[in-house]
Amino acid sequence: MALLRRDSLVTGQLLRLVLLHTAWEVGSGQVRYSLPEESKHGTFVGRLAQDLGLEVSELVSRMFRMVSKGRGDYFEVNLQSGVLFVNSPVDREEVCGQSPLCAIDLEVIVDKPMRIFHVEVEIQDINDNAPVFSVNEDNFIIAESRLPDSSFPLEGASDADIGTNSLLTYKLSPSEHFILDVQRKNDQSKSLVLVLKKALDREETPEHRLLLTATDGGKPELTGSVQLVITVLDANDNAPAFNQSVYEVSLYENAANGTLVIKLNATDLDEGINKDVFYSFNNRMSIKIKDIFSLDINTGEIRVKGNMDFETQNIYEIQVEAIDKGHAPLVGHSKVLVEVVRAVDADSGYNAWLRYEVQEARAAGPFRVGVYSGEISTTRALEESDGPSQRLVILAKDHGEPALSATATVSLSLVESPQAVKWDSRQRVGSEGPLVDLNVSLVIAICSVSGLFVLVIVVYVALRCHTGPEVMCGPGKATVLCSSEVGSWSYSQRQSRNLCVGEVTAKNDLMVFSPNVPHFAENGEKKIESEFTPNENGMSRVDREEVCGQSPLCAIDLEVIVDKPLRIFHVEVEIQDINDNAPVFPVNEQNLSIAESLTLPGSRFPLEGAFDADIGTNSLLTYKLSPSEHFTLDVTTNDDQIKSAELELKKSLDREETPVYRLLLTATDGGKPELTGTVQLMITVLDVNDNAPVFNQSVYKVQMLEGSANGTLVIKLNATDLDEGIYKDITYAFSSLVPPHIKDTFKICEYSGEIRVKGKMDFEYINLYEIQVSAKDKGNPPLAGHCKVVVEVLDINDNAPELTITSHSLPVPEDAPPGTVVALISVSDRDSGDNGKVTCSIPPDLPFQLVSTFKNYHSLVLAEAVDRERVSEYKILVTARDEGAPSLSASSSILVPIADVNDNAPAFPQPVYTVFVKENNRPGAHLLSVSASDPDLRENAFVSYSVVERSVGEQQPVSSYISVHSESGHIYGLQPFDYEELQVLQFQVSARDAGFPSLCGNVTVQLFVLDENDNAPAVSAPGSGRGSPGPELVPLSAGAGHVVGKVRAVDADSGYNAWLRYEVQEARAAGPFRVGVYSGEISTTRALEESDGPSQRLVILVKDHGEPALSATATVSLSLVESPQAVKWDSRRRVGSEGPLVDMNVSLMIAICSVSGLFVLVIVVYVGLRCHPGPEVMCGPGKATVVCSSEVGSWSYSQRQSRNLCVGEGTAKNDLMVFSPNFSDSAENGEHEKLQVAQGLIVTLRDVSSSASSSI
């Protein structure tokens, strides 16, 4: 729709322009036309020939031509009618930019006589450019703590049109948080400011999206828009919150160190570091609890750290805090109540005696478990109704108090064949033996200990009832009890003392017990130190806080003992508290950091309270804060009557006004007289980025001479920021609204604010620059200040002549006659006087010359004939020099090509291309490139490539293997090459030019496929020739070098990639077996021993020699036996009651023996017939195993050798082969060797080279 409206507007203006025909002046030879921009091709501009007073019929004969000064070919003249029309649409903004006047100057030249006419076409603006923002999306980061009425500058839109078409109005999409403020400056430009009218909340809306629309003043109106994405920056305004305010946990008193008590979890609605939470104990929590429990600050796990004693304390109250990592951290609180449960230690003795039972036993279940042995057995014969599998849950319980238990799940599968059951039973019985023995040992141990204990008791009672001659008393404990460890006292509250009894040695049969005065022994366990002295003057001061701590009731229990008769008296001394401890803060000075404007009034900051060692009224604390207009103290009391003090902000802080506050917090207890403690509160106000940088002036004016050198200082700007730290650091930059030509002329140092010359300033081009500069701090988000720098350029004589060259009739044909016009050259100098007078020249010895046609106009014409085969082009340097002092000059080059005919065919630089390609190449991979050259020009030299089609292999076209890019000559592989199928591919590539007629040339390409190691070795079933996949039987009597089997493998690759190597993958240092490196034969390295075990399992690794090497493995099982009879006996014993399996094995052995005997008989008969005496006997090389010489089977050539056997008449024959996997291939030094081929068959071999014979 916009395009249709624009076309209608252009048509209407054209109708008016046709009526407005501007006359031309004869004396000046100048004509002026007007035309709307974007007029289509063929639009009528004016009757140029008629307006210039030229006859239309003479335009061709007078060589009518028209040129424009560097403006392109926007216009053309119809030589038949003399009408000037539009050749291509003119974009006013592209031609003239923001200049209010836009005109294209044309120059018309005619000969006979030579005349030059000046034509000016004014281009009028239409509203064809919509407002454009510099970006499609503008991102802002605004802290949620920013106050309403905060403003944020926006970048406006730009409109390439001029006048009314470029006047812009702005509109912002509706928002409850933001409004748009448009301000008009003195220069009528508009500045946009986004104003915050309602506070933001990131937790409610983390991102706001607004649409800013700009509308111009044209008809019809055009609009542009930009998306404003406002990301709300998180402020630390949410404290961490626990899942519960109170957690209750039960824990055994004997819990080991490191036992997990509870894992706390606190969450924070903020994000980033404000969301990261760490945990800590409350500072007011007692040291005793901190010694027993530890808290992981990162995970929130509370674990046992020290010893818990139910008799000493059965409940612990742990105050935990969760603190975030914000700039001003916030704290969440929770309480963990740990209830200590009395525990029974069941590690040994009766507590370790186990009992087993089926947990979910059925009434008629087929299985049961031994009560003390744990053995699972059948209760009856199994039936098919019992199902294919059973699942038993076995419960194991100790005899402790309370009893502890554990469960184990046993899965049983019912099978018909007893073979698997027998094998599994053997394994299980071996592993369960120690368990049964352990239980029996435990029962025996318990009975022995119990009997010994009874015996000790009897002896002890007898000794105690025996009256001694004297009794003496010495230092002892407050309570005397029997030393038998009975009762409920824990070991941590008992100790023994030596008492003097009679005239015998000291005894340990008395104990002292005093439960009220704890002390710590050297090993960390509690003991009782309540020694008494009979001297009545042995009194000392008692510190209640040292003796009883925070316990509300403090009493020391004494027990007095007298003899004759023995009596015990109980004495209790209650210690009453006095106010002898003043409140104490954990530190002398508490430091707080509070952000200034981000922290809103009403924010609270927890303070560390004081501690009073007294109890009751003496420990009741009241807090008082020194007067402050910004802070107040809030003291709260929880359910446990524990007071917590919090510092509350009642007025916003301003760091620039007061950076530090010092307050005095006083704690007073409730005793008489009152005691006080104080702590200094030092509150540091943290800076936030609430002050934008400010320049000294809003507008700076500077004058500069044109032609100033690069790096010349224009001005040094200075902006200041009242904030501190990184918020005070300022960087300077050009505004995004600064046009590119200003950025190309000037540069600004982002740190110093210095503006310097970067490009060339030209008074004749631009004499005034307005530079918008912004100063931004490094806050997050940053704040910015703005100013304007006006640079006025002063003129000097610094303009060299300007050359404008318009080419004509290029290229020049070889047969062009002398006098042909090649180009029209115009010169100008923007200076005046002698500085503006210009002369032109070209180098001598060129077949061209300059002809002056008018003032400052020259024609470059052909002076003599040219030959393209000798010189294909000419580079003509045209120099224009003014008459100033010093003289300035300008030069320009004209490249004059000579036109050619298509008389040269494409040629390749070499007759044959050779390329080597690895197989399995990636389809579409680049193989090589061919290139042909043609000395012709343009289309005559444009070469296209193609493949000369032919068949390859089984009638496959060569194009199915490769393709050639028609323009670049790159040859690509269409499919992976397989060396095993194709080794060489030869084809031809044709290069053809685009001339008329076209010429072509061919080249041959030879592609050699290289083998890759892409086939891993293939391993066949290993064995010694018995045809059985089972384990190989190796007699223990076998000596070193005995071949027990062979691994056969083949590789589909060729050459080095198919050369195989064998090795034992996990070979032991003194292993009895080895494998042939290249033969694959498995042989013994030494005589076998019983220590080698009944069986061996070898993993044979077969690797080729490729890069990278590929491998395969074969597992060979070897069974070491003493004799066939032992093998048979072992088989019978292994089978046991498996009658059918034994019968089957016996049958197999009978069949194997029968076949072996028949095979031996056939061999004996065959050898006898072959070795029947004849008239002549010849001996020669032979093989150890007699088979047909046809090479069948899986033996590799490396495992065969040919021998001549002794035969009767005739020449030596090679129609027999010998194969022996168990012995070495040949004898060394010509010695005889005997190979046992078959029972009763001896073959004599003779090495022909050494004339030595051997018998087989």
Automatic annotation (TrEMBL):
<protein>
    <recommendedName>
        <fullName>Protocadherin beta-1</fullName>
    </recommendedName>
</protein>
<feature type="domain" description="Cadherin">
    <location>
        <begin position="610"/>
        <end position="695"/>
    </location>
</feature>
<feature type="domain" description="Cadherin">
    <location>
        <begin position="346"/>
        <end position="436"/>
    </location>
</feature>
<dbReference type="GO" id="GO:0005886">
    <property type="term" value="C:plasma membrane"/>
</dbReference>
<dbReference type="InterPro" id="IPR002126">
    <property type="entry name" value="Cadherin-like_dom"/>
</dbReference>
<feature type="signal peptide">
    <location>
        <begin position="1"/>
        <end position="29"/>
    </location>
</feature>
<keyword id="KW-0677">Repeat</keyword>
<feature type="transmembrane region" description="Helical">
    <location>
        <begin position="1146"/>
        <end position="1169"/>
    </location>
</feature>
<feature type="domain" description="Cadherin">
    <location>
        <begin position="1034"/>
        <end position="1142"/>
    </location>
</feature>
<dbReference type="InterPro" id="IPR013164">
    <property type="entry name" value="Cadherin_N"/>
</dbReference>
<dbReference type="InterPro" id="IPR050174">
    <property type="entry name" value="Protocadherin/Cadherin-CA"/>
</dbReference>
<keyword id="KW-0106">Calcium</keyword>
<keyword id="KW-1003">Cell membrane</keyword>
<feature type="domain" description="Cadherin">
    <location>
        <begin position="157"/>
        <end position="242"/>
    </location>
</feature>
<comment type="function">
    <text>Potential calcium-dependent cell-adhesion protein. May be involved in the establishment and maintenance of specific neuronal connections in the brain.</text>
</comment>
<feature type="domain" description="Cadherin">
    <location>
        <begin position="696"/>
        <end position="803"/>
    </location>
</feature>
<keyword id="KW-0732">Signal</keyword>
<dbReference type="Pfam" id="PF00028">
    <property type="entry name" value="Cadherin"/>
</dbReference>
<feature type="domain" description="Cadherin">
    <location>
        <begin position="243"/>
        <end position="350"/>
    </location>
</feature>
<keyword id="KW-0472">Membrane</keyword>
<dbReference type="InterPro" id="IPR015919">
    <property type="entry name" value="Cadherin-like_sf"/>
</dbReference>
<dbReference type="GO" id="GO:0005509">
    <property type="term" value="F:calcium ion binding"/>
</dbReference>
<dbReference type="GO" id="GO:0007156">
    <property type="term" value="P:homophilic cell adhesion via plasma membrane adhesion molecules"/>
</dbReference>
<keyword id="KW-0325">Glycoprotein</keyword>
<dbReference type="InterPro" id="IPR020894">
    <property type="entry name" value="Cadherin_CS"/>
</dbReference>
<keyword id="KW-0812">Transmembrane</keyword>
<dbReference type="Pfam" id="PF08266">
    <property type="entry name" value="Cadherin_2"/>
</dbReference>
<keyword id="KW-1133">Transmembrane helix</keyword>
<feature type="domain" description="Cadherin">
    <location>
        <begin position="804"/>
        <end position="908"/>
    </location>
</feature>
<feature type="domain" description="Cadherin">
    <location>
        <begin position="34"/>
        <end position="133"/>
    </location>
</feature>
<keyword id="KW-1015">Disulfide bond</keyword>
<feature type="domain" description="Cadherin">
    <location>
        <begin position="909"/>
        <end position="1019"/>
    </location>
</feature>
<keyword id="KW-0245">EGF-like domain</keyword>
<keyword id="KW-0130">Cell adhesion</keyword>
